[in-house]
Amino acid sequence: MDKKGTASVLLGAAFLMATSAIGPGFLTQTTVFTSQLAASFGFVILVSIILDIGAQMNIWRVIAVSEKRAQDIANMVLPGLGYVLAFLIVIGGLAFNIGNVGGAGLGLNVLFGITPEMGALISGIIAIAIFVIKEAGKAMDRFAQIAGFVMIGLTVYVAITSQPPLGEAVVRTFVPEKVDFLAIVTLVGGTVGGYITFSGGHRLLDAGIKGREALPQVNRSAVSAIGIASIMRIVLFLAALGIVAQGLALDPKNPPASVFQLAAGNIGYKIFGIVMWAAAITSVVGAAYTSVSFIRTFSSTLEKYHRAIIIAFIAISTIVFVLIGKPVNVLILVGALNGMILPISLGVILVAAYRTKIVGDYKHPLWLTIFGAVIVVVMAIMSGMTMFTELPKLFA
């Protein structure tokens, strides 16, 4: 692969991971937490960015050095663990994809007035079309990049229109009035939890960017991915902060839509439709690609027909949404499970980093190991608390 091709893949992997993270949940979380914490949410974003980089660099580096996907690494750490991890990722990815398809349908509903179900159907067909193309990898990379630039550009416009108090935002990012640990964990889980962090790591592997000599490129792509997602998070935070600082109330039924509408009127509402659709459709593509990448190495048949399985994955997500709408109970249950995936997957990766049969004579940086271990402990505690609080409500 020439330099231009390599650079395109590195950027594509970064955008695939970032746009997988930026979904309907991402837009809602950011807006709701801004309304609760105001300028102090900047501190939450800062801490979550640091934790995201720590988790992502650990995972992407070990995948690159071992030249294996996460499920195969897990099976080498403990036989059978890779199948458990793959099961969690696929079930989580499928459930969240139903929500992502619904978000895409809502985006087209805002733009064109069609029903969310019809919008979901059209979006599902567009997502499937990407994987029907012969050069599906390149098409996916390009689609993620274009959608990412569109989302960020339009949200920057809305942020400027809402006139946020920038000085206060900067001060409270470093000296917060209040700290919300649940918000930090929610942001970390929503950026590098579940299938999301593996989307870019597995994409680099598929494109042949692997081995110890590729580590500088892998590091750059991993940090770029967090950077892209974080730019969107910061810009959306500023847009919402401008509205909150004016004392305007957000619509609890659709907080991000009300930010765009209050900031820029009807044009802002239409911009929200574009941003919501772009965020949701790229998450549909990322979730399907990554979820299937967790099972394709288990047999030659799955490997041979992996593209058809990705298409089926998107089709099932779309049909479920169109027929029964968003299954809230399933999303809550799988949301709790998804929170548990990061400590499990990152824990496995940290153990694998010190197994010579997996990484050879590669020496994993000690600071990254310590960083990763802290993230595992914090996320395990918080996801455990979520399971105990959410599950009783679910089955009450």
Automatic annotation (TrEMBL):
Where does it reside? Membrane
An annotated GO BP? iron ion transmembrane transport
Residues crossing the lipid bilayer are: 37-55, 76-98, 110-131, 143-161, 181-201, 222-249, 269-295, 307-324, 330-354, 366-388
Keywords, sorted A to Z: Membrane, Transmembrane, Transmembrane helix
Q: Which GO terms describe its cellular component?
A: plasma membrane
A single GO molecular-function term is:
cadmium ion transmembrane transporter activity
Record's bilayer topology term:
Multi-pass membrane protein
Q: Which domain of life is it from?
A: Bacteria
Give the protein's recorded name.
Answer: Putative membrane protein YcsG
Give the lineage.
Bacteria, Bacillati, Bacillota, Bacilli, Bacillales
Gene for this chain: ycsG
